[in-house]
Structure prediction request, 1062 residues.
Amino acid sequence: MALAFDEYGRPFIILKEQEQKTRLRGLDAQKANIASGKAVARILRTSLGPKGMDKMLQSPDGDVTITNDGATILEQMDVDNQIAKLMVELSRSQDYEIGDGTTGVVVMAGSLLEQAEKLLERGIHPIRIAEGYEVASRIAFEHLERISHKFEFSATDIEPLVQTCMTTLSSKIVNRCKRSLAEIAVKAVLAVADLERKDVNLDLIKVEGKVGGKLEDTELIYGIVVDKDMSHPQMPKQIEDAKIAILTCPFEPPKPKTKHKVDIDTVEKFQTLRQQEQKYFDDMVQQCKDAGATLVICQWGFDDEANHLLMNRNLPAVRWVGGVELELIAIATGGRIVPRFQELTPEKLGRAGLVREKAFGTTKDRMIYIEHCANSRAVTIFIRGGNKMMIEETKRSIHDALCVARNLIRNNSIVYGGGSAEISCSIAVEAAADKYPGVEQYAIRAFADALDAIPMALAENSGLQPIETLSAVKSEQIKENNSCCGIDCNDVGTNDMREQNVFETLIGKQQQILLATQVVKMILKIDDVISPSDY
Amino acid sequence: MAVEKLLKDEATEEKGERARMASFVGAMAIADLVKTTLGPKGMDKILQSTGRGHSVTVTNDGATILKSLHIDNPAAKVLVDISKVQDDEVGDGTTSVVVLAGELLREAEKLVNAKIHPMTIISGYRMAAECAKNALLEKVVDNKLDAEKFKADLMKIAMTTLSSKILSQDKEHFAKLAVDAVMRLKGSTNLEAIQIIKKPGGSLKDSFLDEGFILDKKIGVGQPKRIENAKILVANTAMDTDKVKIYGARVRVDSMAKVAEIEVAEKEKMREKVQKIINHGINCFVNRQLIYNFPEELFADAGVLAIEHADFDGIERLALVTGGEIASTFDNPESVKLGHCKLIEEIMIGEDKLIHFSGVEMGQACTIVLRGASPHMLDEAERSLHDALCVLSQTVNDSRVLLGGGWPEMVMAKAVDELARKTPGKRSHAIEAFSRALVAIPTTIADNAGLDSAELIAQLRAEHHKEGSTAGIDVISGSVGDMSELGISEAFKVKQAVLLSATEAAEMILRVDEIITCAPRRREDRM
Prediction:
């Protein structure tokens, strides 16, 4: 360890308890970091593409998750290594930003690191490599822009959107009914989309799952599904033209926040208090009734007495509805969330054409459907499936599909999938490399090689000969000057992704390249790792 | 530089072939565990809990067995999960679904060893499952329109379901009970309306279905033991001390005399409440919560039968049966709907006194009283009856019916085999494997019955080669028999759920090529 001395020859203490820390410096540090980054990418590599395999993850509590969604795998893996954590972050940010391509971005970063390792061994300075990568990523970024296609669709012609969502879903376990799920996702997005402003608020789409039934029973409900039942078993199970009071105050006697005591010292007080209490309940119910509500949805619980009074006045009610759901209901029915009974007025009530309770299976599972709402902008995707894991995985897949559809509405440029965009970029970057003088040229060329990793992994996962397939496709692209040639993962017989209808969003791809490059640059710049040694 | 450590200390990671092996082995072990319970001659398992008292359960219900196991293998958990879902959704076939998934994986293992890619196997399985489902759809019988025949179908299904359970000795008796109970529901799948009361003593044959409603409670002291034309008020209200619910209220007095006054006021309040209840013009009052001695006495004085502490289910059911509503406030008697029944009386079953409500307004609910030699026996009987009730109530909704005794599996296997012959490419191996896995179910049934499965299955296959065959395994005589003559039927919904869930589970496990187990969460206390 390095030591510094002051003018009297006493050592400065730079690191506390220096001996107990391990420290990696220089090339060793970079190599170690690259190795761990690669290890993470290697785990995800086999999950890429339509024929990618799943990972089974057992959480600390023993729950099992089966998925091939990159972000989910990394999140649940509980990694301990700092660099690996960076990769996890990388995939998460892709998930937040785009929602799809979370596996691809990690594989891409992994292969960039792999190429960087080779360059480091040849003695090229890491910063030069990083700069070269930066230049190359910009070239690729622009090239993607050039090969992108505008993608025409409208609210009436949703077929192209469905096709895109199907590409996303085909890599998931749900690809058995990708067609119907893709349609559901597109319809849901279109229902909440604001085509003028090109904005989609995904919060308005609620994805709800219930174990049982089969995947084909998954449906899109123009309305809200709440996993609750009526508060009293004898309340009506179906309400037409419901006027809904949405309350955030409990049907209970008031509980002032300030501490107080009500002292009872005479019989009269005892009796007035009792009457007050009864009146209080009565007033609450009456106020709902007066406002013209035919259904009460409440965030809190009810007192038994209040419950019966509601029942008695023929006012069905649902209790313990979560805050998020309450908000969605308010949006969908056009009602206002009312925090106090006094403020309940007829204008603040939400409207829904049909509210019904539906029972499932042999157990006591009931859900409340709120349909034909005044404002149909809030929708619910209701997933059925064989088991809990299947539902969870379907939820994740639907989320990806929703994100893709949203991205297309925001920006309707697309590039073709199946690795074709990467191959095309790789060719462009390779060609551009020769124009750069200096050491960066090598880094740019390495970037081009790294881009090949994604089609390579696709081919490998599909059981094709990776090198043969890739070189064949590459030469085809150059020969025919056709940037749509990709890996034929599904064994359809053509390499032209246009015919296979496999495409991805432009921003998704661009984001992948930018994010991966950024993280790799960051990793390359680290030359000193100080960590507490094993305890 | 060696490969950096990625995961936390105790986490493990298994990759590729090893991962697949681990999940295959785990899943097959689970399937083999429940395999011997399949079919009418299946054996039971004893489960001993690790909790206090080491309570013992004897069962051959797949879902119950799997629920009680502590499993560490993630793939095995997938199977436990599907059996649980099968139980929730259709109630029966919990063993079959696990056995089928296990067999599918067993076949898949062979294919993987023969260097066929898991994805190819999956696509083959999918095609096969689709084809099998269609084959079943072609053969279903729907007797919904003909009430007589439909009832006969239900009877057959109930008998078939029960024949693999502990109740098989008296299956006719119980099948009748179950069918009667379900028919009363008139198409609703709300099994809560059917109450099952278990009373040790007597024999299984003594079990009976009661048209009325039985509440496992005692009548208060000094109150009438028998009421004709009862008017019942079902309530959920505090009958101990009616607390003041306004927050922060408390009693503060300065002399003993005041305490006495307040006590009187409290009593007065209760008396008023009781009076209000009595003013409803009732002669029976059932409360979910406790009734203290004082109000009980008041009720007794007024000649009202008061029943306290009926649990929530009991209350709901009672409200359902008598047509009354559950009340919590008593200020306006005219708007509260009272329940009615012809007769309330105390009856004795074994040594216990129960309250029997007969001649109720709504005939939907009913009670099945199970009698049996021991609590274990009763528990198992309840589970079996529950299975039968579930299947029946589902069948009432989806009235499509198939024959049983391995017949559907053979039909599916035949269709799938034909598909395999027509399909070019590697997938055909997977499709063939699927049909072999299907045949494994009748094989297991035969094996469990101690029959020569190889011989029987071969005969069955030959028999099924003819068009429209109705042959299946007749376990009783140990030969191939005509299932439609023997009256062995199964619900289509159950079979379909078995087929689809098992395929889905197998597919899920096949797709895995890496298992990452996180370090177990550290428990702060003990352990």
Notes: The two ends of chain A are 20 Å apart (CA to CA). The mean pLDDT of chain A is 82.
